[in-house]
Every structure is written in structure tokens, then in C-alpha cells.
Amino acid sequence: MNGRTEHGALELEDIQHFLMSRPPARAARYEFLTFRSPAYGRAWLMGLIDKVGTAKAVGSNQVDSRWVTIGFTWNGLQALGVDEASLATFPEEYRQGMAARAEILGTTGANHPDHWVGNLATPNLHAIAILFARDVAERERCRQEHERYLVQCAGVELLSSLDLEALPPFDYAHEHFGYRDRLSQPVIEGTGVEPTPGSGPPIKPGEFFLGYPDEEGPAAGMPQPEILFRNGSYVAYLMMKEHVGAFRDFLREHGETPEQELMAAKLMGRWRSGAPLVLTPDKDDPSLGADLQRNNAFTYGDMDPHGYACPLGAHIRRMNPRDTAVNMNRRKMIRRGGTYGPPLPEGAPEDGIERGIAAFVGCASLVRQFEFAMNVWANDPNFHELGKERDPIFGTQDGTLDMTIPKRPIRKKIRGLPAFTTIRGGAYFFLPGIRALRYLASLGDGH
Amino acid sequence: MATPGPARPKESDWTKPAAMAIPKEGYFAFAQGRYGPIFPKTPACHGFSVVAKVKAGREQAVRDYGKSIEEAVKNDPSVLAPLKLHYLRWILFDVGSGLHFMYQGIFDTDFDKYLEDAVALFVKTGITTVFVNLERWPDDWKTNLSAVVKFFREHQCPSFLEYGEYPYVTADEIKKALKLKSAFADMLDLMQ
Does a structural domain hold residue B8? Predict the structure, then answer.
């Protein structure tokens, strides 16, 4: 297919489902792979293409663990045999890989790639395969099936893997600190989905999928060739350990249960139930937290300019400044991911077991969307002119930074905020469309 | 390797005017930004001085932008707010090597951080179109952000000395202080 689709009807049968829909899976597995030679990598890919879930085939109301999601690092595209001319057309930040961008992202100190696990920081990381499953038992069945497949595939090795499970109770998604998650997502224009109040208008597909018009106009500056880039997306992967014991200890230092809940809310910008501080600054409101038609309907500049409700540096205010930032329709990202590790029971001391969240941030431009959010919002100590503060939940904290909580008559300032999370790994992947996957699998066959 | 550290040095004191000599490259230690090296904050905050040759016959076209920017700001005084500007100076000069244009801005945002927002603003207000009169400005500037970024970075002339009468103070802080002063003055008047 030549030329560009100006009007951008989404090719749902060619786009991988991962960023388009979220099947109700309670378990998942991420496998990080390396190819010993292009022929081996292509053979592995060829055997999996028919299992890759498309946006058309994978709906949001059932889990079919046949479906796989596949992505490649720049090194992975090279390892498959993509030619140098084509590789050179991919964006610089994707080529360098997330580990090389640590200074820009602010993933320094304890978050630095030197300390990452799972071989994610090595140049041998070529591909990720994501499996979703209805539950842990089903995931185990999938894992064994893929293990058998991998054994058959010469020259493709597992560098590391991560098993994910939803945390009970299962009535809504939440992570290890107890916060309700997945409350604010962009809606893609043309999908027929209605954005929830406060989530802004639907966003042009080109902000997330290559080859479509984006918020600034027709698709431009794409990598080459078209068959490779069209319907693809970039995702930034982040594995984040959550120090649940340290988090609970910190809350306990701040009074009895109601004050602790308020402190937890001030760090995040929402009560753990999901209710936003801007709408309910003094006490929690779980029914508001659960109501998607109300829990995202707020602004900052109009409703809370000084941060008396939601502190200026709180996590959700950094990750989405709403009406206090410009050009916001160019800063949207689609988030996916889940929790790993067993829950730490309430009242139990820190047990040293690895637990946390593994997240994917999907967009059409890593430097403009993901890296901007990390560099300018999360890890800039001068965000909102605060001077010495980073994101309290997942910014790079080394115990020397502060957190200001505006309050009448005098603000509260926490000095030396501890680190509640540590980044254990990350990578930049490209998720090709189905035609692109076939193209990659057939490289070297006289293409 | 430097990390994006606190923007205001610990020993800053607005009561003491300060000067800062800057190495030739424009920075003391290389720190990587999303689009290139980060230039440090100085007693004169952040800024850039972009110098480029004017295409033949375009002098008046460039000069006319003086009026159009004046109109734009008159119509909407907050139009340039996202740039967090203190001052702008646009200069045309010929010192023997042909007509050149200098765009000098002093502002509170790191050039690297808000580049996309600045370009989006320039496009919206029509400021970018002054640049089409400059040599080596990319033809596909409307859709090719990295080419635009490259132009600014290649034509940036870093300062080797900057001075600030009230070092590191942001435009927002100045306005807040003036607002407070005005409010106190009103209050004292009321108490007469």
C-alpha cells in the first residue's frame, strides 16, 4: 500500500491490540528475548505471527490466552536483519535505548541502569513477548506452551521474564500501596469510545499509532519503509519495585489512620479509593472514587490553583497537569501494565520479597511524549517552581528532596522524602503492525 | 554525569547582583537534554541568542514582524506566557558579512524542556514565519520538529558572560512580589 491515509480510518486488523483494548486478564507474563542470529529470530517470529492479537480480534470483554503481543528494541530490529538504511530512519532515542537515556529521564542513583535486573540494560535485549491470561493457572499453562516453543526455536533465548498477577480483591485494579489505578486514559478518535468527563476530547490516532494524522496534522517524519512503520507504536517499559514496608512506615509517622490516609492522598493527588483531592479535599469518598463518570471531572488552574486540595507536586498533578500546561493534546500516553509479586499483608513487616508494578507507556514519539513526562514533569526538581522536589511516588528520590503540601495558614513541608519505589529495569520497544511483523519475518527472502 | 539538579543554586541570593563567566561551549559540565546539551541557569536565568543570515531581499519582511508581534501581544497580553519570558530583543545587523538577524530571549524555562511547546506557540502566533526569511531554515518546518530544533541549536550563540541584578529571580516571583507590594500599599492606605 502506497501513500498516506489522510482520513485515517483505523486498520484494526493490522494494529496489535495491546494499546487499543485491555482484556480482563488477572495474570500475565512478560518474556524478554535475544536472537543469536537473524535467521533464528525470524523463524521464531514466523511461528508466532498468527498468535499475535489484533485490535479487531481482541475485545475488552474476554481473555483469550492464545493471543500474544510482540515488540522489538532497535537492537532487536537490527538482530532480525533490518538494513542499516532503514534502521537509520528510526528516532534517535529509540536507537539509543532507555538505558542510555538515564540522565535525560532522571533514572539516576538507585534507579540507574547499572542496577537494573533481568538483563534489560544489555544491548542483547531484542524482543518482548507479552502473554495475557484469565488467571494464574491459565498463565502457567501458557508459560509451559511457550517454553516448549522456545526449546524448539534454535538460537532464541530467554534473557529474563516477569510474572504478573492482579492483587486481590479483584473488584478494581489497584497496586501494592493500595491506590486504585486506571482512572485517567486518553480516548482514541475513531474508536467510538466516549471519553469520561474530565478526560479531554478524543485524541488523533497519530499520537499513538504511526501513519495516521496526529494532533498537528498528517503523519510526518516516519521511519522507513512504510510497511514496517505503519500501524506500529513505541512503548516505554518500566519495572518499578514498590517498597511497601517503607511506604507504610512513612504513613504511620504522620498520625493516626485518618491523617495517614490524608498523607497518602496528598502524595498521589487521589485518596486510595481513587477519589480526587480536588473534588474532595478533606475526606475520602469511595463511591466517588469508583465512579468513572465523576472521578476524573476536575481541573487545577480553575479549581485548585494554589494546590490546597491537590499539592502542586503530587503524582497525578505531575503526570497530567490538565489546564495548567500548554500543548497537552501532544502529551497524551496510553498506559498498560500490572502488578507483580505477592501482596504484603496489612500489618506485616517488610519481608524483602520483590513486588511492584510493571508499566508500559505507549505513544508515537518517545522523546516528545514519554521522555518529556519523565524529564519535565516527574523528575524535574523545579516542576511548578517547587525548587527541590520530584514526583513523590516514582520520581528518583534519594532522601534529600522535599514535598510541599499547601495548607492554610502555613504550608506543610516534608523534608527528606524517602524513596517508595525503585526502577529495576526498562526498555524502549517498537510494536509493529501485523503486516510489518510478516515483513520482518520474511527479511532475507529476497525482499 | 550531571543530573537535572535543582535549578536554583543553593548559594543564590537575590539581594546580591552576580555575574557568571561561561565556557565556550555554553555549559560547565555536559548534561544531556532530550534534544542536546543543557545550558545552565545563570544569574540572568535562561535564554538564547539565535543568529542567522537573512535571505536576500527579505529585510523589510523581517522588520514587519515587529509590528505583527506588537499587535499579537496587544490583542492577547498572555500570548507568550508559555515561554516564561523576561525579555525579547530582535535585532537586524550588518557588520560586513551581510544582513543578519538575532533573536535574543531571556526566560525562565530551560530551552530543552519546553522546545516543543515554544515551537507550537510560534506556529500559533505566526512568530515562526519570521524564520522562513532566514538562510538554512528547514522547508518542512511545519511537520519536522527535529529539523526546527536543529536549526535553533546550530544557530545558538552561547553567552560567555551573564550578569543579573537580582540573580535567578523568575518573572513569576517578580510579579508576585509586586502584587504583594501593591496590596500592602492599599492596606496601609485603608488603615489611615
Answer: no
**What is the least distance, in Å, from the CA of A353 to any CA of chain B?**
30
Report the percentage of chain A scoring pLDDT > 90.
Answer: 85
Model confidence at A253, pLDDT cuts 50, 70, 90, reads very high
Is there a domain that residue B47 lies in? Answer: yes
DSSP at A54: B
* CB within 8 Å: B120 and A326: yes
The tens digit of pLDDT for each residue in A310-356 reads 999 999 999 999 999 988 999 999 999 999 999 999 999 999 999 99
Which chain B residues contact residue A103 at CB under 8 A? Answer: 1-4, 31-32
Suggest the residue from A332, A376, A398 to mutate for an interface test with chain B (most B CBs closer than 10 A). A376
* pLDDT of A60: 66
Does A249 fall in a domain? yes
pTM of the model: 0.92
Say if residue A401 is in the same domain as residue A269: yes
Q: Which domain holds residue B61?
A: 18-190
Same domain, yes or no: A142 and A127:
yes
Q: Are residues A227 and A253 in the same domain?
A: no
DSSP at A145: H
Q: What is d(CA A28, CA A359) in angstroms, rounded to the nearest whole number? A: 12
Minimum Cα–Cα distance from A366: chain B residue: B34
Domains held by chain B: number = 1
Residues in contact with A287: Cβ distance below 8 Å, sequence separation at least 6, in sequence order: none
Residue A12 falls inside a structural domain = no
The size of chain A, in residues, is 447
Does the beta carbon of B85 lie under 8 angstroms from any beta carbon of chain A? Answer: no
Q: Are A82 and A75 in contact (CB under 8 A)?
A: no
| A330: contact with B, CB 8 A cutoff | yes
ipTM: 0.84
User: What nine digits make up the cell of A226?
Assistant: 512504510
> Which CATH number fits the domain that encloses residue B111?
3.30.70.1090
Mean pLDDT over the full length of chain B: 87
